[in-house]
Design brief:
It comes from Agromyces albus. One of its GO terms (molecular function) is DNA binding. It is a single chain. This protein folds into two domains: 94 residues, Multidrug-efflux Transporter Regulator, Chain: A, Domain 2 (Orthogonal Bundle); 60 residues, no CATH class. 62% of the residues lie in helices and 3% in strands. It has a two-stranded antiparallel sheet with strand order 1-2. α3 crosses α4.
């Protein structure tokens, strides 16, 4: 499956019962082999594909989080590797990971396999933050549904 299709599949997954294929798509994105149609993307194409603005892509580049290559005309080109990293960055930012933590994590990734233990610790801390957020959001949802019931009826109606 092409990188574009995998990214779209990941980012379009919104229903809780539709997450079954997400792990497979994530693993496919991590594989080192890609379909032949995985040509580099321009800033605009990459931004549209991962749901970010071109400004945000440039910011991530300035912060050293992603390093797109340049074509013969000097324009930025986002490779499949860059796109995979952007998917990771968007998911981590959405879940509340700080820029400081992202920069630290990416620096560790770029240092290689000897940093896997440190990266795992960062991901464990992030998982704990996400679980806490889920508990807080669940409580907010329950509170909202209670209020809807208090206004006379079922919360779905």
């Amino acid at each position: 499956m092409a990188t574009n299709e995998l990214i779209e599949r990941l980012l379009d997954t919104t229903e809780s019962d539709a997450f079954e294929g997400v792990i497979d798509a994530l693993q496919a994105l991590d594989d080192s082999t890609f379909a032949p149609d995985d040509s580099p993307k321009s800033v605009a194409e990459a931004a549209a594909l991962v749901g970010l603005s071109p400004h945000t892509l440039r910011y991530y580049e300035q912060e050293g989080l992603v390093r797109p290559g340049r074509n013969s005309a000097g324009y930025r080109e986002y490779s499949a590797l860059n796109l995979r990293r952007l998917v990771f960055l968007t998911r981590m930012r959405m879940s509340g990971m700080t820029m400081q933590d992202l920069k630290r994590y990416i620096a560790l990734v770029e240092r290689g396999a000897e940093t896997e233990g440190e990266r795992r610790e960062i991901m464990l801390a992030q998982r704990d933050r996400i679980r806490r957020q889920l508990r807080e959001l669940t409580l907010a949802l329950v509170t909202t549904e209670y209020k809807l019931r208090s206004y006379g009826g079922h919360p779905d109606g």
